[in-house]
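Worked example

This section walks through a single chain of length 149. The input is the sequence exactly as stored; nothing has been trimmed or padded.
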Amino acid sequence: MEKHKNIGARITLWVNRLVALTVGALLFLLPSILEWYREFRWLSDGEKIVVMVCFYLCAVVIAVALFSVDRLLTAILAGEVFIRKNVRRIRIITVCCGIVGLICIPATIAYMPLIFLAVIMGFLCLMVSVVAGVMDAAVSIREENDLTI
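Given that input, the structure is written out below as tokens.
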């Protein structure tokens, strides 16, 4: 039974690491991928530059978020669930989602489909913020219970 404990967290941790590797690969492959994309849809040189700048700016923020997710899941797997560090990690992820959304908004002037990414990241920012609030409340309850015992 212990073997199957936290299987979801283990799977998510490995998926997170796979996403991190993918983002790392995209740092080098993005120019050629955009050239390939131009075979299917017209993409001006200006739009290509906007997409690349947007991605490279977001990549830094994404790296911070993915690292925070990695640390969060590692702590959970170690049995450290309701701790202040995890609340801080979730709040970092919230901020990262918001920053990616904000980076994409001005880029929509040159490449309109990025508006979808901006809206999705804004929504994700709100949802993760709710999770952070719930986690913060749970940590407060745990700390209060620890003091009464």
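What to look for: The chain has a mean pLDDT of 95.
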